[in-house]
Write the structure tokens for this entry.
Amino acid sequence: MNLGLIIPELSVLAGAIIVILFNLFSKDKKGLNLISLAGLVVAGGFTISYWGKSNQVIFNNMLAVDHFALFFKLLFLSIAGLVILASIKYASKFAQFRGEYSALVLISTLGMMLMASATELIFLFVALELTSLTLYALVGFLKNQKSTESALKYFLLGAISSAIFLYGMIFIYGFTGTTQLGEIAVAIQNNITAGSTGGFGLLLGIVLIITGLGFKITAFPFLMWAPDVYEGAPTPVTAYLSVASKSAGFAIVLRIFYSAFSQPVWLGNEWGMAFGILAVIGMTAGNIWAIPQPNIKRMLAYSSVAQAGYIMLGLATMGFAAQTDILGQSGVLFFLAAYTATNLGAFFAVIGLSEKTGSDNIEDYAGMGKKSPLLALALSFCLISLIGIPPTAGFIAKFYLFSAAVQHNLLWLVIVAVINSVISAYYYLRVVKVMWLNEAKLEATAPASTALGVAIAISCLLVLLLGVAPNFLLRFAEIAANLFTP
């Protein structure tokens, strides 16, 4: 049955079921967070225990237990744990639904773990929908007008993107006769040539897949949902969406495109150029639209679009690289981990500052450098990392990714990325300037909770460690990327 190889997923599922039962039969809700965190820790322990073992494919070649999947499983488990920790006080805003909130976070994490392992398109789609449905519910948890509107918009656009992705899968199946990624790669190399009917049909399927997944990774031009959803959702959910959903989307992209579409060379060049063009437009549009935003959650939404552009630079590198070259893949993996730590730290600091000011408007953060220096310092540090200034994780991530692109003759793409990094400094540093140099407009109220402080400290410490001592994670990313070498 191979159940021993999916113990991490079963642990998360068991945690969600226990949370639901505990919520039903216990009046004391304090144990919900401990149960959730315990389930994640157990799953993380089993995931780590698989590291270093040989890669295996289970359940009729539908799931892979390999270093690539393990990398993302650990990433998702870490994200979920930090988000639950940061939500302990914030969840009082929907106290009646604390149990449902924790259970949904765990179930969405389970879906993402299955997505990272999926090697068969139908199973991948089911895992994608498991994740998406839980995220739609989480966005609407505040049950006010903004939150409800955001959830509805996210659901409708998400359903459309899923349908487009499904159409792409149908085209791929129609021209290759299989839904298993390895078999798709063989069918393409044996039966499809550039310029043939099969070649055009295959490219159409790839375009539809990019379109469907572009929504999940907040890529241009599939970003229309992000600003409203980021603003209307509970801030911990926004943090979760900004990193977990994006990482899961890129995990699918990496798995599909390099397992199924990396050969022949003409096909890799086609989708590599497509991602390169989307990267240029996404970086530029995201940064320009972020500049005038008065609300910090909307600003970070457009920032997320720009960051997706930087990551797609790595995907473009993959398309033009030889199959034995793992620089692009490992660069994407390292960037996702660094971005996760940075963006979580930023949003967790926003939770604390918004609780103090009662507002998400940037101008209302004026004077927080004096009134709440630790929160202001944490947010400033994470924003500096998002720009890519040393000694932060963001600098190393961009340096590694840009270096890989230069080595594969994509200097033009790197130049655009560097220019956009300079543009992004304007709106990121504007927040820093408001907090530290402007006079306070509002009185700071209750202090941040201890759990939130711990989550912020962990995130910021990771941002610093990955900036000054990145070798461990770089090696970790390279081992995970070795999945794609012949």
